[in-house]
């Protein structure tokens, strides 16, 4: 069992988030630190009178000084604790009954699964692991061994190359951690459709697993059959593959990466289709959409799945301007009665704020939009009620007049 190497005393009135089981303690909430904990050590979190509230791991290099692991200060945080948390997350995914039609999904979703800083995605028999915090980095070897024991994978890769590690004082890390390396391009299934995935070089851990259910919802036959679909920020096809599967007359894929679009075209072939009417446009989505507006080109459906626009609080205003401009352009490109599927994966942009941005874009575009459905992340990315930050993906499917 790991020893507790210090104690964090909270300022008066700052214990409420801990009592409400939010897993973060920010630097501004701390009155004092007792002992001499090293970065990544376990510490107790206590109120101003010293009454223990929780156990966390500590990082003086991060604004989030402590990430809470247990609200029972007497619970031993030994190997059994970590094995139990991992097994609980895996059982939850088994209950989703994704196999055999889906072979790629999120196995562990960090704080939402009680494992702050740890993300694990399954791609067939290969696991891809992200160690996003110093506390997880310190325990990486143990966690790899536990994942190997619990899942019997062919291999475990690391893709700890996100900006989150910089905030923890950590350098990027990628490579093989255990077992055999997968082929350079791995074939996965999602709802029965095939995608080629490059685990060591693709976005995130290789694929946007969180959009799985939204792809099925947005691209239903009654929405896309015989229709023209614009798939902006297409990456390797995602939404476009589903649209093609359900009879879209033509799909126009736009992405800044020509390499990603090559994979999108390969994914069409991988599914056994020939689609000469589809387009693959490498370029800035804003610029391409503006060109289409000037050409008065119209579509039956526009799908917008942009990358994160807001990385910090100071980015929110700029991000909202970007979302408004993007959606204003999309609204100008839709035929009367057409469909807009639009998303934000910026956790700092709430669903309410995103809807207000869409309202503003609709007013300026002189279009009426009926919301058919609010959309969010797939259930293998669960939302923890005490951790609202886990609800990062929000979307709207709307009818445009």
Detail the topology: elements first, then pairings.
Layout: E1 4-10, H1 16-19, E2 24-26, E3 30-35, E4 42-46, E5 52-58, E6 64-70, H2 79-94, E7 104-109, E8 118-123, E9 126-131, H3 134-138, H4 140-151, E10 155-160, H5 163-167, E11 173-179, E12 186-190, E13 193-197, H6 212-218, H7 221-224, E14 228-232, H8 238-245, E15 250-255, H9 258-270, E16 279-282, H10 285-294, E17 299-304, H11 316-332, E18 334-344, H12 351-365, E19 369-376, E20 394-400
Parallel strand pairs: 1-4, 9-10, 14-15, 14-17, 15-16, 17-18
Antiparallel strand pairs: 1-3, 2-6, 4-5, 5-6, 7-8, 8-9, 10-11, 12-13, 18-20, 19-20
- Count of DSSP-assigned helices: 12
CATH class of the largest domain: Alpha Beta
Biggest β-sheet strands, sense, barrel:
7 strands, mixed
Q: Could you tell me how far the N terminus lies from the C terminus, measured between alpha carbons in angstroms?
A: 62 Å
* Rg computed from alpha carbons, rounded to a whole number of angstroms: 23 Å
> CATH topology of the largest domain, anyone?
Rossmann fold
Mean of all residue-level pLDDT scores: 96
Short recap of the structure:
With 401 residues, the chain is of the alpha/beta class. Helix content is 29%, strand content 31%. It has a 7-stranded mixed beta sheet with strand order 16-15-14-17-18-20-19, with helices on both faces. The chain has a 6-stranded mixed beta sheet with strand order 2-6-5-4-1-3. It has a 5-stranded mixed beta sheet with strand order 7-8-9-10-11.
